[in-house]
Amino acid sequence: MPAQSHTVGTRGLFSTDAFIMNHMFKSCIALSVLLLFVTCTSPLEFDVLLRNGTIYDGSGDTPFLGDLAIQADSIVAMGSLSGSTGKIEIDLDKMAVAPGFINMMCWANESLIEDGRSQSDIRQGVTLEVLGEGSSMGPLSDVMKTEMAKQQGDIRYDIEWTTLGEYLEYLERRGISPNVASFIGAATPRIHVLGYEDREPTTPELNEMRDLVQEAMEEGALGVASSLIYPPGVFASTEELIALAKVASRNGGMYISHIRNEASLLLEAVDELLRIAYEADIRAEIYHLKASGQSNWPKLDQVIEKVEQARRKGLKITADVYTYPAGSTGLNASMPPWVQEGGFGASLNRLQDPSTRRSIIREMQQESEEWENMFLGAGSPENILLVGFKNEQLKPLTGKSLAEVARMRGQSAEETAMDLIVEDKSRVDTVYFTQSEENLRKKVALPWVSFCSDSASLAPEGVFLKSSTHPRAYGSFARLLAKYVRSEGVLTLQEAIRKLSALPAKNLRIERRGMLKQGYLADVVVFDPAKIQDNATFDNPHQYATGMMHVFVNGVQVLRDGEHTGAKPGRVVRGPGWKGNAQR
Fold first, then answer.
1. How far apart are the first and last CA of the chain?
2. Which residue of 28, 152, 259, 294 pairs with 32 in a disulfide if CB–CB is 3.0 to 4.6 A?
3. How many C-alpha atoms does 493 have within 13 Å on its Cβ side?
4. Residue 581 — very low, low, confident or very high, per pLDDT cuts 50/70/90?
5. CB-side exposure of 174: number of CA atoms within 13 Å?
6. Where do runs of H (alpha helix) occur along 480-564?
7. Can you tell me the distance from the alpha carbon of 296 to that of 284, in angstroms, rounded to the nearest whole number?
């Protein structure tokens, strides 16, 4: 069993041996082992000594000039460390030093199997990837494993795990640069027990689903995550979600959700999340908070007021966002959810039946209170960008709009969408331009909002170049620091860093991460605030961000002078319900 992050370095100030601890005590002024800022009076040698940095500790407080020392996997001293030495010493010339950034929601499930270096995120300072929106990589039944294998695209892999915990340990064994953590997706136990049927579970079936959540929580899942616009998540009732959330709650976890509607029924969807939080007595977060579709943009202010009112009443409600006014999901999300009942194979049959196709087209053209119509929400097929195909014959269409492809084929956009899914035998990865830049600024500034990429972690090489992607895969965090902090002043740098590190760590109840503090694990990033920059665009998304200079994960340097070292020290980070906690 790999070493777990919760138990590393908890014996004292240092995570190595008593010799180092005694050496530190004799070399520093009295009580220095108890203080955050240490002024040493005689030379010490650390594994890593970062000198002359502008230290943002993650609290949101004013930064200070100082040094930071790392021994093994932990931060052991901060402040003035003149006279001391390091096996690795870097003069930072007053560059920003911050806790590693936490990506509150990503899709690196498969990309980390293909390339554990996590290049696009490491180069932005992400040291923890959080997985599991809606569905998770476990627990899997044999049927689910077969289906997962069939749905693999350009990235191919053997499924060598069954439970969620086994998947995370599989990543750690293979070698990954960032740390990883995961929610259990609410759809995963539903598929395990009910398949893709649109019905309520019986009491025994619901109990079986609850048992699967309990198992995942004991393996270290952070909580339960739902995605309620996609089948089979859309088939789950509020009562079913409350039942699963209660299991997470009693294990110290949280409930996090791509809410049931981000458009015409946005306010009602937020009310559902608040009800789940209240009745399950659980912390809750809204994934990638947004008001989708121009007619719904004014509703964001009401959402903010709902959340802040709930917070004033004592509910622990938060949200995360990505820093772009466009989202990305499958082309099949532009069609009514019933199309996918019974699974993807059943949906392909429906999309080829002439009578059913006419019904689908009719519903795509109408506003509905039953489902979120992303086809209409984009405003025009010109605003629906096709970015990922499995079929080699369709890959030349990558980067074209749905409207452009429809014109090429002499079809309506609705017919083209259905045909592309059938021909590709996939959902077809798609970008939808549905959001407001003004609203985005409001969300970025909210003190209870953290950040995500909602994307895989990629590299402009190999298999990743077979598809396009959303630029957020390469730029969501750098864009925050470049555009909304440096250029527009929407929030201060110290507040942005708090919302990238300490805030999500606290929300997730992750121990010893999220701040620069003695005894905390050494996830540390160094960047130039004047030069940090996202470079990815919608036309050319496969471009790394720049300005991030050094990144350490668990005390190991994975980025040096802006280039990846190849190191893969990432670990599994487990939630408070992990059964291993009982052994501490």
1. 16
2. 28
3. 22
4. confident
5. 23
6. 493-500, 502-508
7. 23
